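Give me structure tokens for this 269-residue protein.
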Amino acid sequence: MPPASPPPGRLFVPLYVHPTVDPAAWRALRGRARQLYAVVLNAADGPGRHRDPAFRAVARDLRAAGVRLLGYVDTGYGRRSPRAVLTDVHRHHRWYGVDGVFYDQTAAGRALLPRYRRLVPAARLLGAPTAVLNPGIRPDPGYADVADVLVTFEGDWASYRRARVPSWTAGHAPRRFCHLVYGVPDSQRKKMAHTSYDRGAALHCAVPGEGSNPWRYPRLVETTAWETTGDGANLARGMDRRGTAGAGRMFQRRHERRPGGRAVTDQTR
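Here you go.
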């Protein structure tokens, strides 16, 4: 199956805040489908054990607006059992009607590449045709043959500024790569978006937040032309005013494993 083809500079949004905590953030996304490549649904470090009515409602509304939805699935850097992984994929599709899967905590080395060569086609058979892999660093080049999109950087702004681009990524279209950066100052959001594309990644997300769950913070989708007007500004102000809860336990675990962002070390060149 050929990879999806978003235009340059589209936004990849992992909005890890519960819809009942910040409904305005989810409403703002619905009106901006054309700026979005995808939104990641993460009810409880995955689909959870039971269907969440609030996530079901926002999933329905986003699908109706033409937004691609990806179900969050933790692969435990290749250590989680395939059965557990695919159970999560099946639940995401059955409960929320997702269009694809966001395989998080993906392994990066060649040794575990065969496992993902099985998990990605299996997800497609379960009704999740778009596959995004997130090792958070640049993995072995073979992963580019498996996924529609690779997240080759997830980390903080200081680390991102020092990150290097391996030569093998130049052999692929920018639409195949995504950079997720947190701790980005407001004054640097546009620079981050341009830097991402200059480094060969057409998909990106920049947020000012830090801590255990930076993806709950404001200005999640403000690196496009609508960042100071309309729903974009409303999204930022609305999330500034609200507290945070839910959909964030995963990042506390991840950042304990990856203090400060792992992407500038352990690189595959």
